[in-house]
Write a structure and sequence with these properties.
The complex is a heterodimer of chains A (about 300) and B (about 400). Chain A has about 300 residues and is mainly α. Chain A is built from 13 helices and 2 strands; from the N terminus they run ααββααααααααααα. In chain A, α3 crosses α8 and α3 (about 70-110) packs across α13 (about 275-305). The two termini of chain A are about 20 Å apart. Chain B has 2 domains: about 65-180 and about 310-370, Periplasmic binding protein-like II (D-Maltodextrin-Binding Protein, domain 2), CATH 3.40.190; about 185-310 and about 385-405, D-Maltodextrin-Binding Protein, domain 2 (3-Layer(aba) Sandwich). The chains are: A mainly alpha (about 300), B alpha/beta (about 400). At the A-B interface, α2, β1, β2, α3 and α5 of A face α2, α4, β6, α10 and α17 of B. Chain A: Keywords: Cell membrane, Membrane, Transmembrane, Transmembrane helix, Transport.
């Protein structure tokens, strides 16, 4: 937006004839209009409605009226603080995991894959050809208590290890923290890989060579050249993974148990089963503000110290 | 099941019955913002359901548009396994010339209500002419004036409704609704996962250490809490707040102990057959259908009692093809047609004479206690009592706190 408005005056100073100037003035704004209108109708208005709804009181039968009941926020936080915290924790774990899995893959694709690059890219995107829901349901089958994955994990002692660190509560994999975090990682992994790939692909290999010429070890070359240059991709990837993961309710519903409920699941239940719209709206807002705060803190840290 | 029903049961099926198939997944597509944008000013019908608001009707286009839009639960009608067509619907179209848009988008009472309420509250057409709601939801729809009275002149077969279902508390004389199917909620188990052990009591579900982490309950409050209250010796046709809370505590104890794997809609079927779920609270028709492929699966109606519910045809306000919808209902109230449906879905038929048809055509189904229960079986079945709107809000909030946290 800034760049579009920024070019408008530059164009107008360059033009000499007044009619032309007028046209070049409004065209950029006119082009902006559909987008702004779209965001206004589908983002600003619902946000305001959501906020006002959170301050209403009443019931489905009698209707809701605005009473400015701020106490609902205290109630929401008090009742569902553990779920909020848990969502943030799961989303953060999934983000770290996705980064650990995605970075080497993106690196390979961008710098080493050669003519296989496009094939690999399609493979990364391929899961999107089928529904999110189906992919998560497939994990139920993969991690099934009676399936081969679980019996293999049992035979190599992985289940015992996971149980010891508290990621599962018995010698199965399904219906546990472990399964939920795996599901989140899997479902959002492409969102991590694609921005990483984009930033690594732009990386000039001569810079890494130059580091080598200056007697940097490969590790040092990575640390001081490749990693800093890929940081925009890392930041974009972590945000694109963390934000949807924190609000997700499908993975925890399908792969979790009664102790792994995430905040999205609570909001879903409050909106669709209990029909307590104010509480659901308040919870949505709390989640929104919390994520916004975390993201701002993160971007500020990553952005000022290392990106520039 | 008609005249054999013991007097305790012929008490009207209270409005507080159970729903089935709580497949919450369907909610996935419903964004929070969409809902937020929905109007929040509800109507204000009388609180306790004494007098109900009357539903608005639209101009009936039945004569000019030979069409009816029916929303129903998934896997709730006969399907030809080879052609994937629905024989009774096809025959209906052939017989009457009315095309049926059959949509399986009714996954869950609460979710469906959340979907159509904004339209109904604004006095708009929902795009549907008929759907099948569970008893307690029908009670709410009538109370809020969201469903229209049936024109019984268009449903001459309505007299075939089982006597026990004729006079229900929420719709005396069946003015607004007619049952589609009924069923029980009981306990299902997979002997392969329990090590051959039978699971026959609710106590076993909630406390048996050998089932730890392999038990699911239904997210449908009236089923799960109902069964637990019955196991505690309470009468679910007239329980108190204290009884309800005691049952909630009991379930919470099991949940905190890690006994429960989750609260499900009918998505329990696959894991149960595979053995991921060792035992669960389950609906009759689902398990009878599963048993066809997994004969070892066990299903019991606990000695302490099980719950009984019906899903009912209703015609929403502003429906455009009301007469066609009534023609459709009339068609399914023909015992021969209903027998064909029940033979496939394996729930309990609400239409007199369907058993007689099946005795001839499929005696094994006609003999199945879960499909055509005898008085002894029925004496174990109970109906969750109707709730006032205030109770409904209070209880469902408690239940949601337990299941979704």
């Amino acid at each position: 937006m800034a760049s579009v408005t920024g070019t408008a005056p530059a164009l107008s100073t360059g033009a000499s004839a007044p009619p032309e100037r007028r046209r070049s003035n409004w065209v950029p704004y006119a082009l902006l209009l559909p987008g702004l209108l779209w965001l206004f109708v589908f983002f600003v208005v619902p946000m305001i409605t959501l906020f006002s709804q959170s301050l209403q009181e009443g019931s489905i039968d009698e209707g809701y009226t605005f009473t400015g009941n701020v106490g609902i926020y205290a109630e929401a936080l008090q009742s569902y603080f553990p779920q909020l915290l848990r969502s943030i924790g799961y989303a953060a774990s999934a983000t770290v995991l996705a980064l650990l899995l995605g970075y080497p893959l993106a690196y390979f694709m961008a710098l080493k894959a050669g003519r296989w690059k496009n094939v690999l890219l399609v493979l990364v995107i391929a899961p999107f050809f089928t529904s999110f829901l189906i992919r998560t349901l497939a994990w139920q089958t993969i991690l099934s208590d009676v399936g081969p994955v679980t019996s293999f994990a049992r035979s190599i002692g992985l289940t015992n290890l996971l149980q010891a660190v508290g990621l599962t509560s018995n010698d199965n994999l399904m219906a546990s923290k472990f399964a939920v975090i795996c599901g989140l990682t899997y479902n959002f992994l492409p969102f991590m890989i694609l921005p990483l790939y984009a930033s690594l692909e732009r990386l000039d290999p001569r810079l890494v060579e130059a580091a080598g010429d200056l007697y940097a070890s490969p590790a040092q070359g990575f640390r001081f050249v490749t990693w800093p240059l890929s940081l925009p991709g890392v930041v974009a990837g972590t945000l694109l993974t963390f934000i949807p993961a924190a609000g997700d309710f499908i993975n925890s519903k399908l792969l979790g148990n009664t102790q792994t409920v995430m905040i999205g699941q609570v909001i879903d239940a409050q909106f669709l089963r209990v029909l307590n719209y104010p509480l659901a709206a308040a919870l949505s807002f709390v989640l929104l503000v919390l994520i916004l705060a975390l993201v701002m803190a993160y971007v500020r840290k990553a952005g000022t110290e290392e990106l520039v | 099941m008609n005249d054999q029903i013991p007097p305790t049961l012929s008490v009207s099926l209270a409005r507080g019955l159970l729903s089935r198939r709580t497949l919450m997944i369907g909610a996935a597509g419903l964004g929070v913002t969409t809902l937020a944008a929905c109007g929040s000013k509800g109507r204000s019908p009388s609180a306790s359901g004494g007098t109900s608001a009357s539903a608005k009707s639209a101009q009936d286009m039945s004569a000019s548009e030979k069409l009816v839009n029916w929303s129903n639960w998934p896997e709730y009608i006969d399907v030809d396994d080879k052609t994937q067509k629905r024989p009774t619907l096809e025959a209906f179209t052939k017989q009457t010339g009315i095309k049926v848009n059959y949509t399986e988008d009714y996954n869950d009472n609460d979710e469906f209500y959340a979907k159509v309420r904004p339209l109904l509250a604004a006095g708009n057409d929902t795009g549907r002419d008929v759907w099948c709601s569970t008893d307690w939801m029908v009670a709410r729809l009538i109370r809020q004036g969201y469903v229209q009275k049936l024109d019984l002149a268009n449903i001459p077969n309505h007299g075939n409704v089982e006597d026990s279902l004729k006079n229900v508390e929420f719709d005396p004389g069946r003015v607004y609704s007619l049952p589609w199917q009924s069923g029980f909620a009981g306990i299902a188990y997979n002997p392969k996962a329990t090590g051959g052990k039978k699971v026959e009591t609710v106590d076993q579900l909630l406390t048996d250490p050998s089932l730890k982490g392999k038990v699911t309950l239904l997210s449908e409050m009236r089923d799960s809490v109902g069964l637990v209250m019955l196991a505690m010796g309470k009468d679910i046709t007239k329980f108190t707040d204290a009884d309800f809370n005691a049952a909630i505590d009991e379930i919470k104890k099991a949940k905190d102990a890690g006994q429960l794997r989750g609260f499900t809609g009918n998505e329990y079927t696959k894991p149960l057959a595979a053995g991921d779920i060792a035992a669960c609270i389950a609906w009759t028709g689902d398990v009878v259908q599963l048993q066809a492929e997994n004969p070892s699966l066990g299903y019991v109606l606990p000695q302490t009692g099980c719950t009984l519910w019906s899903d009912n045809f209703v015609i929403p306000a502003m429906a455009k093809h009301k007469k066609n919808a009534e023609t459709l209902i009339n068609y399914y109230y023909d015992p021969k047609v209903m027998a064909q449906v029940v033979d496939y879905v394996n729930y309990i038929a609400p239409v007199k004479g369907s058993k007689e048809v099946l005795v001839k055509e499929d005696p094994s189904v006609a003999k199945n206690q879960l499909i055509f229960p005898d008085p002894q079986t029925l004496s174990r079945a109970h109906v969750f009592r109707g709730l006032t709107p205030a109770e409904e809000t209070k209880y469902s909030a408690k239940w949601a706190e337990l299941t979704a946290s």
